[in-house]
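Section 3.1 - Work completed
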Amino acid sequence: MHVAKVLYIGLSRSGTTSLNHVLSELGLKSVHFCGFLLSDLPNWEKCGEFDALGDSPIPSLYKELDRRFPGSKFILTIREKESWLKSMEWMFDQGKMIFNWNERIHEYHEHFYGTRSYNEDILSMHWENYHRDVFKYFSDRPNDLLTIKLEDGFIVDEICSFLDLPYSEIPNVKMNTKRKAKLRSYLKYNAKSALRRLLQFIR
């Protein structure tokens, strides 16, 4: 592979977990969810530790990362909008407890998606605007962007060709499936939220 970085810039709930698995199986050091960039002072140097980066907050930073790592390749996973909205509804309802979101993640969602909670109108508009912006940005660089529609699945030889990697068989592509939050996750998340509100009140 002769590229600076592989940046997978699909929105949350668009197959980024599965793509992370594919890239890892292809031998790349891939990181899914880059918390070290979720800061007022992002740790850009840490990006150098990985071949591929994706999930939050990469979609909001792809233009900056393009500037910092010229010669990178970008993979955009797209989930059909209605299916994506249903999955985002789950994420804002159950996922926040399962993944134990902290305030920084809520702030990121408010900044990037325009909401801290599920709002179909806002998220639907964001889906439209984000993909339009990505296609416009790469309109004169078609060889730097690979688009994968989640409903079509991951065609490994297409990914290998795009990244100039030797083909490798990947029998089972892992999916990040929806599930209900367990009671422990529910209590942990809500206790942390209550503490945060209390501290804000005291201040």
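Second construct:
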Amino acid sequence: MDARHLRSQRQWPVANAQRLQHHYFQTLVSDADALRAGPGMEKIVLMGHSYGVFLAMEYALRYQENFSGLILASTLPNITNYAPIIVSTRLSEITEPTLIPGGRNDFIMIPQGHIDLDAALPNSKLVFFENSGHFPFITEADLYRQTVSDWLAVIWLVFTNH
């Protein structure tokens, strides 16, 4: 996702690339909270897919009071090698319910990354879609929708103390 078209419109000098990429990452996380606050929503369930998983995890760490759950879909192969260091070292701080859906046949983001993320998060549920690759919400759309709906129903019951 390049919501601000920063990557396509700038040629980053090599010396500043890491700093600028970090700023870009942080800006997108701030943008997500602005989208939450704009219509006056107090809490959200945030979904990240692929690279968006890192944005969602950073959001969870920065704005813990503003969300009630995460859906981290098709995450990267090895969370400690690919995640920004601030995220990978603080995963245990994300205590809100987290659904980790992934495709069993995902050759882009191998299943082990999902297993590692599930092990690192204290309140997560890992679900593999056996006939899917990187986009289980497309290839097994009905099952994916049902899985997410069922998980959201449980979150709602816990959140509203029913």
